[in-house]
Amino acid sequence: MTPIFVAQIHLFTPEAGGRAGPLPPSEWRTVLSTNGENWSARLVFSGAPSPGDTFEATAQLLMPEATQHFPVGTEFTIWEGGTKGIGHVLSVRA
Description:
The structure is a single chain. This protein is mostly beta strands. Helix content is 0%, strand content 49%. It has no helices and six strands. It has strands at 5-11, 27-34, 37-44, 54-61, 75-79, 83-92. The chain has a six-stranded antiparallel beta barrel with strand order 1-4-3-2-5-6. A hairpin with a 3-residue loop joins strand 5 (75-79) and strand 6. The two termini are 13 Å apart.
């Protein structure tokens, strides 16, 4: 999978329905949702962000046709058995 876009990610705290612990180090396979559609993705980042953190990640989408749903400025939710965070697209890689 090639990098598709860079996003700013904010993880919800456990009190807001987020994860109880930090993400696995370096990458997280999850689902990104926008405009009522869900897309499998791999987020690649530094470290192991904790609930409440905001960080940048490179997103790779499993389905190439999903790219059209994530132009610069798109806001999306991050789902893992429930909504665990939000993000928005900062830049798109060609």
